[in-house]
Amino acid sequence: MVAGTQLTPELPAWLVEIWEWIKLDWLWIIRAMVEVSALAVGIYYMFTYLQRSRGWPVVLGFLLLIGITSLFAALKLEVLGWLLQQLFLVTVVAILIIFQPELRRLLAVLGNLPLFATNQDSPLDVDAVVQATDRLSRKKVGGIMAIEQSVDIHQETQSGVLIDCALTPEMLDSIFIPQSPLHDGGVVIRSDRIQYASCIFPLTRRLDVNRTLGTRHRAAIGLSEETDAIVVIVSEETGDISYCHDGALYSKVELKQLKDFLNEMLKAEAKPEETRPLIQRARDSLSDLAEMIEKKLRPEEKSN
After folding, report:
1. How much is the average pLDDT of 161-179?
2. Per-residue pLDDT tens for 115-164?
């Protein structure tokens, strides 16, 4: 056997060149994998989130418009293709307007992650809300209480009477009694204060909502679709307690369920965010973001 003889056959020149190029710039593979993975996950979560919104038919129509535009371009139908391209530009702006509430809620949630947290307002007095709900339920007095979080509810309603008083069960009870001039409508609770009363909340436009639901429940669903508020409802006919969040209505719940939900969502007993190190806040932000995505994809079952 001659010394220096190669045991493997020589590779084609073009394959050798590709291999040499990969060895010189192998980071492009990692970059490509990261970009493709991020796009795939982002698109998947976006479509899953939009499927649960009322603008999903608009998304389907937009995708159909893209398909028709691509078909006309492939067939070289220049006039029809140009018209659809102009319509396509208008549709993009229309989609931004239609999905404005969803986009604002998403940005508000991202902005309230622990990484960006500063000084927090006074925590909500969950016991006051629960006690007031219990009083209204026992007396079968209708009421709807919107607990504000990131999105300014008053900007959505543009109605109501400014109260700006301490949050107490007695005050909520006195607002909703039938003889009160402010009982017709809902109240807006911000931190530990009642900000507005006699507010008219937007009704939901969904067609899959149970037709037996009254105006209060439809208003609660509509407000939770437009904002990230938690809305507590007491039925005037039956005294049943319900709460609504993120467009989902949980009806006929017990007081303990309501209290546990409020404590979990509002984190009333959490430590101030600014006392934690930046690295810990970043980790908590990623954890909260993953939990938010998990809840969007797998919402809890609703009570009947």
Report:
1. 91
2. 555 545 567 889 999 999 999 999 999 999 999 887 777 666 667 888 88
Cα four-point dihedral sign 160, 163, 169, 174: negative
Distance CA 274, CA 271 (A): 9
Same domain, 177 and 200: yes
pLDDT band at 254 (very low <50, low <70, confident <90, very high): very high
Identify the residue whose tokens are 């049943």: 240
Question: Are the C-beta atoms of 219 and 227 separated by less than 8 Å?
Answer: no
Longest dimension (CA), the chain: 109
CATH number of the domain that residue 204 is part of: 3.40.1700.10
State whether the Cα torsion 273-267-204-140 is positive or negative: negative
Residue located via tokens 């007081």? 255
Tell me the C-alpha distance between 260 and 127, whole Å.
11
CB atoms within 10 A of CB 14: 8
Q: Are residues 107 and 172 in the same domain?
A: no
- Which candidate, 115, 185, 217, 202, places its Cα nearest to that of 151? 202
